[in-house]
Amino acid sequence: MSTATRREFGAGPLSRVAALVYTLLVVELLLLLCAAPGLVALFALERHVSNLPLVAVCAVPLGPALAAALYALHHQRLDLTELRPARLFWRGYRANLAGSLLVWVPMLLWLTILAVNLVNLRSAGLSGWWAVPLVLVGAMVAVVGVNALVITSLFTFRLRDVIRLARYFVLRTPQVAVGTALLLVAATVLTLVASEAALAALASVLALALVRGSAPMTTAIRQEFTR
Fold this sequence. Notes:
80% of the residues lie in helices and 0% in strands. It is mainly α.
């Protein structure tokens, strides 16, 4: 089979759909594999507010796994003749392990502190209206943190520059911030209504939605801040 024939074979609509499904399945399996230590412990925890710090600890392995998934889904071409999702995933995991943890762990720490304060408002003697600023701050931390994870997954910047860009693009590309916030809300609702297992089963789909939704931000960064 000639090169031109192979390209024609792998470029049709059905081939692209098959390539997307295969890529999502492979990325899903590898993401779950890398996050498995934390997920297994998370599933064993009782759903109680006192376990919030433990939930954050269990979620630590998810950061590098999600970064690798973002890298693989961003770089994978939907061509049946050029499918390498596993290779891309492991390349992204190795390249982004340290950077993703430097972004992910502080975000988890901040969100845990805010969540603990939120669920203990009454015991602390605070009025209920304090929930509003706490939720708003938590939403901002989460959106900036996810922006930073996307940036550090796809580009090579110093940590302080990653954080600056993540904050800057909240205002520069508000559609990305809104899309990320909606994804986070959907993930939270899915976890509360169903279970953590349901969220884990759709992890690669959510990662793909994050890659697609962040395209205006990543395109602007590539054009304006890289050579």
